[in-house]
What we know:
Layout: H1 3-10, H2 25-32, H3 44-47, H4 51-65, E1 72-75, E2 78-81, H5 86-92, H6 101-115, E3 117-124, E4 130-136, E5 141-146, E6 153-157, E7 165-168, E8 172-176, H7 188-191, H8 193-211
Amino acid sequence: MGIATAIRKLFRASIEDPSTSLSDPDAWFMEWAGVDGTMPSVNQETALGVPAIAAAVRRRAQTIASLSVGVYENTSAGPERRETHPVDYIVGNSPHPIYSAFQLWQAAVVNLDVTGNGYIEIKRNGRGRPVGLEIIPSNKFVDIRKEVTSGEYFYFFQSDTADMKVLHVDDVIHLKGLSYNAIKGLNPTKIHKDAIGAGLANDAYSASFYASGGHIQYALEAPQEFSPK
């Protein structure tokens, strides 16, 4: 809305323009100031648009991903690394043809910190031996269900096809954040939605303010002094 239009609306009577009533000063002032009063959309992508959140998530994810990961055996002398074990190479070096172990664990922690849950599928060969690991984006998660007959648990994820991707609990590494039930982590993006939205709104307003030259270009004048009311 241009400033001329906003000024015209400002001084119209409510009969002529009921949507901008002078009896509702909050509404006409926000309209004149160019603020629509709506909060930005908050989701796992836009949350990372807040620099402080992005920096915190990046630092945690990169720090944890840089830690040594391997296969250990409990012995009488304590845990001992088994670097010759085939799974050691998978979890610590090459879990997937496209990305490294560092990138896998980094992505898992990013999902964990932003949505409260990180999912990794354990790929197995025909004999049931692990041959790789694959990240599953948290937004693909649908549900965890218990089979009535066997009592076993299964994860359900959206797939690239119309069919649901179903994985046995033994085939999923599930990283969980704070949780009420120890089954699924709470989503921090939803819990802190208002605070994140305020941060995004502040950034958007600051960008608009500085884009206009960093100063308020207009002011309201009145022939008499107003009371606080």
